[in-house]
Amino acid sequence: MKNKINFETNPNTYKHWELLIENNCAFLIMRVNEDAGFFEGYKLKLNSYDIGVDIELADAIQRIRFEHPNVNSVIIKSGNDKAFCAGANIKMLASSDHAHKVNFCKFTNETRNFLESSFKESSQFFICLVEGVCAGGGYELALACNHILLVDDGSSSISLPEVPLLAVLPGTGGLTRLTDKRKIRRDLADVFCTMEEGVKAKKAKDWCLVDTITKKSSLNDELNLLIKEKSYNKKKADDLICIKLNNLQKKAVSNEKIIYSTLSVQIDREKKFATITINAPLDTAPENLSDIVSQGDDFWLLKCARELDDAILNLRFNELEIGIIVFKTSGEISNVLSYDKLFETYKNQWFINEISYFWTRIFKRIDLTSRTLITLIEPGSCYAGFLSELIFAADRSYMAEGEFEEYDNKEATIILSSSNFGSFLMSNDMSRIDTRFIGSPEQILLAKQNLEKQILAEEANDLGLITFMFDDIDWEDEIRIFLEERSSFSPDSMVGMESNLRFPGKETMETKIFGRLSAWQNWIFQRPSAVGENGALKKYGTGNKGQYTKERT
């Protein structure tokens, strides 16, 4: 599959979803165009989906959050009479290379997590109305919603048939959400996940696999009652103004470079690394809230977030041989700090809150990206407040020590703020500084004592905020040697090592989902029982069953 994946879309160009807004309700109607698969060689029958379908879903959720902040209920339903959703398209999975399978599962998980956070963060209650067949990834989409309403009509059913049919696992967190979110008994979950045909209304309700069942004749009444009882009553407020998300403006795009308005991506194909350089805003942040909101999606904090998210996804899916991402920043550090302070100043204002949640998702996406992450802190960098999260997200950070001639004898600095101590939590529900110093709480206290202070390299090193510091003489050689050494290691070993080291501390549903995706699902997707010539994925739909290797490992 060689198609370059573009993550930009909008409701006017959706092929698979319809977004309708009625008063305080949004209806997301899944009506997959079976002839509009992202790649060639398969049809998206029965509302089955591929990456294109999920890109539209993620965009729709984002637009509901920013463009329709008054919405308090989102109803996900099917526009297909026969099926709610048959899950991820099997022929697409069978014909995908391994990297796409795993990246696809990771992206769909991130989208489900985004949906799942909407009620807590934005008081938007998601109801999944299931009518018809709801299988695999279709049921996993339902599991991510706040409430599942299943029609009791004798034919509608839910299932996770991956194990008996395909020799793989539900790739979008289905097993973990059964046990950790819905608290399904382990033995009943075992039965459910090995039933090819799934279960219908009464058993689904008895086993807590859905929340409500209803006859079709009373469906509308039941749905209206749910909306009335479960939805948060958002009072009409002057600040709930639509923030339209326009297309991203890319100033230049080539095989080696993408230049956005707030950042650039430079790819060194020979040395297998990409450099993302974020540019500070040219001025300090507006002080007046009305001036902030009036800028809409041109507001620097939102514009930079959207561009960085697009850049990370592009590297993930379209640049598989680029094994290292180097983060740099450039510009006036005080300007970044002025924008960072808005998160605290306007912490009760919905627009700033939504941008804060967006940055949380982006930092998590970076944490979960299977590339070596390196942060370079040079003279002229602007790592202040929330941008300093890139230092603590990195596998290693390098800071320039002392004055550098090529930077007009400036020194590199870091500025911490309250944003670094709980505003942008990782998947383990801890801040990156808490995660960094998990065994050294005294280091956290020392770091807190240096808020909003310009920290130079030696002090940053003493505080444990960086990995290494080098002076003007050694800087370039040390960075070059590291990049060469890192590129010489096995990419598979690096993915495994980095994934293991990034998430110490307590387990959460998110860390379990992504940890199991990285380990078990990743492994199963390469086993002959699933993807061999006679494996279940290859044989699905041929009338022949897959042949399994019988050794347990």
SSE topology sketch:
Elements (H helix, E strand, L loop, with lengths): L16 E6 L2 E6 L20 H17 L5 E6 L4 E3 L4 H6 L2 H25 L2 E6 L2 E3 L1 H8 L2 E5 L5 E3 L2 H5 L7 H8 L4 H7 L8 H6 L5 E3 L4 H12 L21 E2 L3 E3 L3 E6 L4 E7 L9 H6 L5 H19 L5 E7 L2 H13 L4 H18 L4 E6 L5 E2 L4 H5 L2 E5 L13 E2 L16 H5 L4 H8 L8 H6 L5 E3 L4 H14 L2 H11 L7 H16 L3 H4 L4 H4 L14
Parallel strand pairs: 2-3, 3-5, 4-6, 5-7, 6-8, 7-9, 13-14, 14-15, 15-17, 16-18, 17-19
Antiparallel strand pairs: 1-2, 10-11, 11-12, 12-13
Helix pairs in contact: 1-3, 3-13, 3-20, 11-13
Mind summarizing the main beta sheet? 8 strands, mixed
Number of helices: 22
Helical content stands at 40-55%
Radius of gyration: 24 Å
β-sheet strand percentage: 15-25%
Class of secondary structure makeup: alpha/beta
Total beta strands: 19
What's the N-to-C terminus distance? 30 Å
The largest sheet has its strands arranged as 10-11-12-13-14-15-17-19
Q: How would you sum up the global shape?
A: globular
Mean pLDDT: 95
Low-pLDDT parts are none
Description:
By secondary structure, the protein is α/β, with parallel strands linked by helices. The chain is globular, with a radius of gyration of 24 Å. The model has no long low-confidence stretch (mean pLDDT 95). The strands form four sheets. The protein has an eight-stranded mixed β-sheet, sandwiched between helices. Strands 1-2-3-5-7-9 form a six-stranded mixed β-sheet, sandwiched between helices. It contains 22 helices and 19 strands.
